[in-house]
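Quick log. Single chain, no ligands specified.
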Amino acid sequence: MVFRTIQEVRQKAEQGKGDYNWRRPHSSLGYKTPMELLKEPENSDLYWVEKRRSLQPFKLSAVFSRAL
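-> predicted structure:
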């Protein structure tokens, strides 16, 4: 693939990042997409944090239970 402008490169990179982070199944999530994982009731307090340039699930309740 040949890009004509830096803007095209940035746009394709953002599209790829979105596919990777939200629409692609991940083995670390039991081969579910992040969106499928968020829809499960037991994950109602699940948030996403960026680690090493990709999104990772993070349970807010785990932080509060350790703090108490």
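The beta strands are 46-51, 54-59.
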